[in-house]
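@channel sequence for tomorrow's demo:
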Amino acid sequence: MALKILKAYRTEEDRMKLPWSYGSPLVRELEKRYDYTEMIFPDEMTEEEKAEIIREYDVLITMWSSPHVPNSLADNPGRLKYICNVTGGFKTYIDEPIAASPHIYLTNWGDAVGWPMAEAAMTLLLAMLKNLRLYVGCSEEGKGEKPDLETQGSLYQRCVGIYGMGAIGRKFVEMLKPFGPIIYAFDPYVPQMPEGVIKVDTLEELFDKSQIVAIHAGLSEETQNSVTADLLAKLPDNGIIINTARGAIIDSEALNKEILSGRLRAGIDVYEPDDYPEKGSPLFKAENAIWTGHHLGSEDWGFNPELVDRYGEVCLDNLARFERGETPKFLIDDAFYRRMT
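structure tokens (generated this afternoon):
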């Protein structure tokens, strides 16, 4: 008997326009493989009305802009045994009681986001290491002579620190290794580091040992503003800080001072509060920084829209595991939920 799967939307417009929705390659695969239903849950629908409908299905698929999942399902799920979230974060529509429920599996896109975000971090790292911003500026101004920079570097035997060793941090390590750096990592929730990665016990130790630090931690109460002025000061002159995670992990004022003084180099895809400094900021003119405004994770160009993308593949793989009676990958429990961005 085919799994009964429900995908709920708040509006018909969401159903027609959001990624991984009506007519998408993922939905076409779901329709071929399962007893698949799409339904609109308007905002005026009560939580119990939604819960009564969801209880009739084995699986609920959620994604950005999904309607709120009723907390009553945590203790009274009916037929529901699995909530498969196609996207990453889901705290706006799934609360902790659902993640803590012993009756319901909860997953997200897992390591699918790892490669594009690791690529983004590597792009910024190499650009800063090779002083790309400065050389492009020389070309644009037609100076005709290249600066002779002592800060030009290679990753070979450089000390690279990684803050956060989740899916993105691990993919980043895979990209780094062929260049031959010395890799340190801090993540108190990861007991065993990948081969070739040296585990450190504190952020202070990470910044003490590193010439370059890449941030891959999630944003939580624990990590917010955890990269302080004192930590940044531990990096050597012309050291590099890369952030493709969340802007609020770094103390923005401290970062600004290091950039404007010219002491540190920075590749910043995310920034607090709006992913970019305010309009007209002198930070934009700093040749030791690149600002990419939370855009580097995009991977749309060149992709065949008729194919299921990597996020949809994780969803389909987990549904197949669940159908076979296996545990889906990338489970989210209440402890993991509290650490999520």
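heads up for whoever presents: The first strand starts at residue 4 and ends at 9.
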